[in-house]
Design brief:
mainly alpha
């Protein structure tokens, strides 16, 4: 372990709170058979983790390769925070390396909070409207977190007022069995309506709403007028 990595880990351990760790373990469903089965928390607030990431943003990709595999949730979280900052400042070749690193380590990006702030900032930003076969591949993965990465990565396109990637990945995930995919897909569809085009969202919904899991549909229609939400839920569109 490098000196810099040892310093980072000591800093995180100094901020740990066993009481908060217990609360977080319950919130993130770490019990046997739950979606975060076995995840371990130090009990550190997100603002505190952001400060640590800022202080260590110059750490090497090699050290981050060790940190991302940590059993501690916060160490993986800080890894991703640092990767995002490095990606923003990186030249083209360095961006290639960070993007590749991310995709090679999806096994450790294994909770919804880890996915939700990192996927669009790295994978989505790297693709930036280009062809997206990798997202289709991830959407067909047996790994729930890779499927969530696929749909949340399209948030970058949504913010750039592009809806096609979201609709294409959402279509793949329409029959997904997991509630966390239903929520993420519905969330991205809702953001299309909010940030890109409500008519485009409704065109998609009219085609697919009868096939959608109920949770996905409820999330997707949250910003529609009450009468339209009621029509979709009752199947009267």
């Amino acid at each position: 372990m490098s000196t810099r990595l040892a310093e980072l880990r000591r800093e995180l351990k100094s901020l740990a709170s066993p009481d908060k760790a217990k609360v977080l373990s319950g919130f993130f469903k770490t019990g046997k058979g739950q979606y975060s089965d076995g995840d371990i928390f130090l009990g550190i607030t997100v603002p505190a983790q952001r400060l640590v990431a800022k202080a260590f943003k110059d750490i090497s990709l090699k050290d981050l390769g060790t940190l991302i595999q940590s059993p501690y949730h916060e160490e993986r979280f800080v890894t991703l925070l640092i990767l995002i900052e490095q990606f923003k400042e990186a030249a083209s070749a360095e961006r290639d390396a960070i993007y590749t690193f991310y995709l090679e380590n999806t096994a450790f990006i294994n909770n919804w909070d880890l996915v939700d702030f990192s996927a669009y900032n790295i994978v989505g930003a790297y693709l930036d409207g280009k062809s997206f076969p990798i997202l289709k591949k991830l959407a067909h993965s047996t790994n729930i977190w890779e499927r969530r990465i696929a749909i949340v990565s399209t948030f970058h396109d949504i913010r750039a007022r592009r809806s096609k990637p979201t609709f294409k990945i959402a279509e793949i995930l329409l029959h997904d069995k997991h509630d966390l995919i239903h929520k993420a897909t519905g969330w991205m569809l809702r953001e299309v309506g909010k940030r890109v085009s409500m008519p485009q969202l409704e065109t998609f919904l009219k085609r697919w709403y009868t096939s959608m899991p109920r949770t996905m549909l409820r999330y997707a229609i949250e910003r529609l007028p009450k009468s339209r939400r009621k029509a979709y839920l009752q199947g009267d569109t």
